[in-house]
Amino acid sequence: MADSHQSSKSGWHFLCRPSARYSIMALIGVGFILGILLWEGFNWGLEKTNTLEFCVSCHEMRDNVYQEYKQSAHYSNLSGVRASCSDCHVPKDFAHKIIRKLQASKEVWGNLTGVIDTKEKFEAKRLEMAKSEWGRMKDSDSQECRNCHQYDAMKLDIQDKSAKKKHEQAAKPDSGKTCIDCHKGIVHELPDTIE
User: Fold this and answer.
1) DSSP 65
2) Where are the domains of the chain?
3) pLDDT at position 11
């Protein structure tokens, strides 16, 4: 018993004695506070880059896809619910969000180097960009779509026959179908040619 008491006492002594200038306890406390501030700053930055204002801050997005988006039901509709860019293009869970943000650094690089800085260059890359996004959505089983749209919440009885049939088939777990298979171009213009 005396040994464990002596051991904990020497542990506290180590934490409370001064380093060159400050106690280990003070350094740990400052480190903890700095860690919280850095983490909060990181999360603040993640959320800032999810805003519509950030997404359309470069003219490539503002002049092209943003104009298309403003004409869609995801921007303006009877219910007044608006899906912003990040609702469709950024996963909600942390791990996939970070992966997507890292992938988006390629888009920032494209902006900085002028890869799509004119309407003509943008249109020339539209198919490549669309295929990349369609592939990402297919791989995630259109999770971003399903954050808002769920098969069991659909009123299939008031949908037209074709939509009802396709939604019933897609809702089956083994169908291999996902939203993006049928809903390409729902918000943004389709490329001139789809391979």
Assistant:
1) I
2) 1-48
3) 67
- 90 and 100 Cβ atoms separated by less than 8 Å: yes
Nearest C-alpha neighbor of 188 from the set 142, 122, 139: 122
- CA dist., res. 173 & res. 2, Å (int): 63
Distance CA 57, CA 108 (A): 11
Tokens linked to 107: 């888009």
Q: Which residues of the chain have pLDDT under 70?
A: 1-11, 14-19, 194-195
What is the C-alpha end-to-end distance of the chain, expressed in Å?
A: 76
pTM over 0.85? The answer is: no
User: Token digits for 171?
Assistant: 């809702």
> How far is 161 from 106, CA to CA, in rounded Å?
42
In this structure, the number of other CB atoms found within 10 A of the CB of residue 111 comes to: 16
Q: Please check whether residue 63 is in contact with residue 178, taking contact to mean a CB–CB distance below 8 angstroms.
A: no
As a whole number of angstroms, the distance between CA 155 and CA 5 comes to 69
pLDDT digits over 56-90, tens only? 988 888 898 999 999 999 999 988 999 999 999 99
What gap in Å lies between CA 47 and CA 101, rounded to an integer? 11
